[in-house]
Design brief:
By secondary structure, the chain is mainly alpha-helical. It contains six helices and four strands; from the N terminus they run ααααββααββ. It folds into two domains: 89 residues, Winged helix-like DNA-binding domain superfamily/Winged helix DNA-binding domain (Arc Repressor Mutant, subunit A, Orthogonal Bundle); 77 residues, no CATH class.
Length: 190
C-alpha cells in the first residue's frame, strides 16, 4: 500500500521525531567514543580545550578529536567558545559524562548500547528472517575489554566477560541486581 502526502503537519512532526531519533542515536555512539577514550574525563578534569590541546593531552589523533568535539557540541553535550576556539563540558554535565563512581553516570550505557547493537545488528536481522537465534548473537569473544584507564562504574580495574547478557546461551550466567550487574560467580561487572 502506498500513500501520498502533501506534507501535512502530522507527517512533518513525525519526520522531525524520526530525524531526532537518528541524531540521538549518532550522539550515543559519539558519547561512547568520548567515554571509552577518556575525552569527557579529560575535559572535566583539565578544563576547556581546542582540538589540538585535547588531542595532545589524550594522545589521540587531532583530526578525529576535532570531529568528535564538533559532534558533541552540536549534540549539546559540550559547549564551544568561538572567541577562544575552545570546547568545554558544562559543570551540570560532569556527573553524567565523567564521574564514573557517581549515581548519574551514563558511560556504561553508552558503551553497552554502541557495542550491543553494533555487533549484533546483522545477527538480529537473520533471527527476524529465520525465526532462529544465531550462534553469532553472542558477542562475548568479540567484545573488547575496557582498559584500566576507563573502567566500568564502581570498579577500579577492567573486567573480562565470560559471555554476553542477551543471548540465550549466556544470559543464565548473569543476574541483575538493584544498582549493579553481577556474574553468576558474584563478581561485579558494571
Amino acid at each position: 500500500m502506498t500513500s501520498q502526502t502533501d506534507g501535512t503537519a502530522s507527517t512533518e512532526e513525525f519526520m522531525d521525531k524520526v530525524f531526532g531519533d537518528y541524531v540521538g542515536a549518532n550522539a550515543i555512539f559519539m558519547a561512547a567514543i568520548g567515554d571509552r577514550l577518556g575525552l569527557f574525563k579529560d575535559l572535566a578534569a583539565a578544563g576547556p580545550a581546542t582540538s589540538v590541546e585535547l588531542a595532545g593531552r589524550t594522545g589521540l589523533a587531532e583530526r578525529y578529536v576535532r570531529e568528535w568535539l564538533h559532534g558533541m557540541a552540536a549534540a549539546g553535550y559540550l559547549t564551544f567558545d568561538a572567541n577562544g576556539g575552545r570546547y568545554a563540558m558544562p559543570v551540570d554535565h560532569v556527573p553524567v559524562l565523567a564521574e564514573e563512581s557517581g549515581t548519574m553516570f551514563m558511560g556504561a550505557a553508552f558503551f553497552d548500547y554502541s557495542t550491543t547493537f553494533g555487533e549484533s545488528f546483522h545477527a538480529l536481522l537473520e533471527a527476524f528472517r529465520s525465526g532462529r537465534a544465531s550462534g553469532r548473537s553472542c558477542t562475548a569473544r568479540r567484545r573488547p575489554r575496557r582498559s584500566s584507564a576507563s573502567p566500568r562504574p564502581g570498579s577500579s580495574t577492567s573486567s573480562s566477560r565470560s559471555g554476553c547478557r542477551s543471548c540465550p546461551r549466556c544470559a543464565p550466567r548473569w543476574r541483575w541486581e538493584r544498582g549493579s550487574v553481577t556474574s553468576a560467580a558474584g563478581r561485579d561487572v558494571r
